[in-house]
Every structure is written in C-alpha cells, then in structure tokens.
Amino acid sequence: MLVASDEHSGRHAWAATEAQDLGNGLYRIPLPLPGDALHAVNVYAIVGPDGVDLIDSGMAIVAAREKLTASLARLGVNLGDIRNFFITHVHQDHYTLAVQLRTTLAGKISLGAGERVNLEAIRAAQAQRKLPGFIDMLPAMGAAGLADQVKTALAAGLGGPAAGLSWEDPDEWLADGTLLDLGQRTLRAIHTPGHTAGHVVFHDEASSLLFAGDHVLPRITPSIGFQPVITRTALADFLTSLQLMLKLPDSRLLPAHGPVSDSTHARVNELLDHHEARLAQLLQVASGGPVTALEAAEGIGWTRRMRKLADLDPMSQILAIGETAAHLEVLVARGQLVRRTSQQGIDTYTPPSPQPS
C-alpha cells in the first residue's frame, strides 16, 4: 500500500537531496509534496543540446515549482528549455505541475491513453457531478460509514491541496509501445495498468534504464486501483504488468518515490511475492464465511508495523479497503472465492461450495 508515514526518517534521505547526477545528462530531482507521507516525488530531467525533457512533473504547488526552477538553473537550463513532460500517470503529484507550467511554456504533455477516463472522472468530481470512484466504491465494500465521513470532510472544504488543481487534457495520448525519439535517447512507453488504468513506464533499453513511475517502487508497495474510475481487475492488471517487466532486460530502477536502485527485476519479484502472501492471508480471513472487503481489511495488519485498520487515518483506510477488495477479486478470478452481491449492493466473499462427489 502506497502509505509510508511510519517509515524511519533515515529512509527518506532520497527526498531531501538536490538534483542527483545519474550520468549522460540525466538527473533525479525530488520535488516536495504538501503534508504527504510520501515526502517527495522524483522528477527525472534529461538535459541535452536541444532542451530538457522531464519524466513526470511534480504537483502544482509553489514549493515544487520553486525547487524545479532552482534545480534546473544549477544544471544550466531553465523552465523555458523544457520540451516535453512525459507523465507516467494522472495522479496529482505527477501530472498537475506540468499542466500549470504549460500555460506559460512551450513544453508538450504526453500521458498514457488509458488515463482519458480518469481525467474525465476527475473533472466530473471537481464539478460535483459525480463522486470520485475511490469514494463511490466504499458502500459496496461494506464501508458506507467511511464514505459518509469522507464526503462530509469534502463538503466542509477539507479536500486538501488538490481542490484548486487544473486537470486539462495532455497534448498527446500515448499508445502502448510508442517510441519517443529525444535525439540522444529513445524511450518506449509501455502500458502498465494497475496503480491506475493508464499508467505507463518509459524504457530506455539502450541505457538499461526504467523510468517506473509508481509501478515499481523500491521500498513501499504501490496502491492498487486508487483512481477516479474503479475497476475490479486492478490487481490482476498490476500483477500482469509486473510480469511484463520480467520479460524486459533487467534495468536500473528509476522510481517516482524512493532512491534509484540497480535491479528492476529484483524488486518486481519482491512485489510479486508480497502480493501472493497477501492473497494467502485474505483467503484465510475469508475461509470462515462471507466477509466484506471492510471486514477482510480489519482482519489483517497494515504498514510495516502491522497496524489495525481502525488505527489508520481515513485516507489510508480507503487505500487499504480498496486494495483488499482488489485482492479478493483476484481470488474470485482464481476460483478460490465466490463474490455475491446483496440487494443493498454490498459485496461479500466466501469459499465456493463443495462440489458433490
């Protein structure tokens, strides 16, 4: 689960650094996030004779814009030199600063084509035409009370720094496999749904680099399906996307949160093992009879400290319940559980009935 608030402070040294020189005109620039347990988001700057290309952009807040400006200046370039914003997915800490900067700069924004539905849903929620999917999903998961709590907070204007962000369309929707010729580098956009429906990673095969966004993180597990449009297949999609990474040559891992590490494959295998262990836990929790996603989430531990669900803040509870539902759906797809939906629209999960011999 992409929640890191109980990590030791020493583990966040990556977030407090200035631009890190990764060689051959490539730099990692951690940009601050407001009151966020993730501390920072890594933006990667590819600096060449014809300008700067960014992988992700940061969040549209003053502190992030100021640090990006100062970091680029130390590299001998400025915001006006940005040619492209290649965005891994539509979450606010990756996308919104690009949208803000585009109002005065010439840089072009490119985003995975699968994020189109999420952008439309974000704008619908912003216009109060529809609830975000990650809130709308909660009653079916047995967590209507949590949904009401979050809706009350939003109605009171406590939506946080996301409230005034701009969510315009990108200049280009990237299809799976699109090649991006940057002159001195070529990147390939690879569709990796799971964290969001339209998440992409950017693979520099010649340099053995993977700009992984939130798909593969070195120290925490990405949240699954936390997006405006909810799909039951989020975890199944994520596991398939992880397996896809193992079919590529192993590459240096350049994540959106956390330090650079040497092997994408090593971390992918750890993530696959983690989710198999979680699936086994939840199968055991559901073995005693029908459970909702909320009840199943209450039956396991969360974060490295194995905290109870009730001890998490409301947003972390939403993440936990949503991820639990995603795991339960994989168990349904594998035939290990059966999902039934009540007349009230609440999903419960139970082992399948024994077949008569």
Termini distance? 41 Å
Reported CATH architecture of the domain at 9-131 and 159-271: 4-Layer Sandwich
- Most strands sheet: 7 strands, mixed
- Name the quaternary structure: single chain
Helix content: 25-40%
Overall mean pLDDT stands at: 91
CATH class of the domain at 9-131 and 159-271: Alpha Beta
Gyration radius (Cα, Å) is 20 Å
CATH level-4 homologous superfamily of the domain at 9-131 and 159-271: Ribonuclease Z/Hydroxyacylglutathione hydrolase-like
The counted number of beta strands is: 14
Main sheet: strand order: 1-2-3-4-5-6-7
Shape: globular
In what range is the share of β-strand residues? 15-25%
Return residue spans where pLDDT drops below 50 for at least 5 consecutive residues.
2-9, 157-161
Structural class category? alpha/beta
CATH topology of the domain at 9-131 and 159-271: Metallo-beta-lactamase, Chain A
- Count every helix, treating DSSP H or I runs of 4 or more residues as helices: 9
- What are the secondary-structure elements, in order, as H or E? EEEEHEHEHHHEEEEEHEHHHEE
Please explain how this structure is put together.
- The structure is a single chain.
- With 357 residues, this protein is α/β, with parallel strands linked by helices.
- It has a domain at 9-131 and 159-271: Ribonuclease Z/Hydroxyacylglutathione hydrolase-like (Metallo-beta-lactamase, Chain A, 4-Layer Sandwich), CATH 3.60.15.
- It is 32% helix and 20% strand.
- It contains 9 helices and 14 strands.
- The strands form 3 sheets. A 7-stranded mixed β-sheet has the order 1-2-3-4-5-6-7, with helices on one face. Strands 8-9-10-11-12 form a 5-stranded mixed β-sheet, with no helix packed on it.
- β10 (200-204) and β11 form a beta hairpin.
- Residues 2-9 and 157-161 have low confidence and may be disordered.
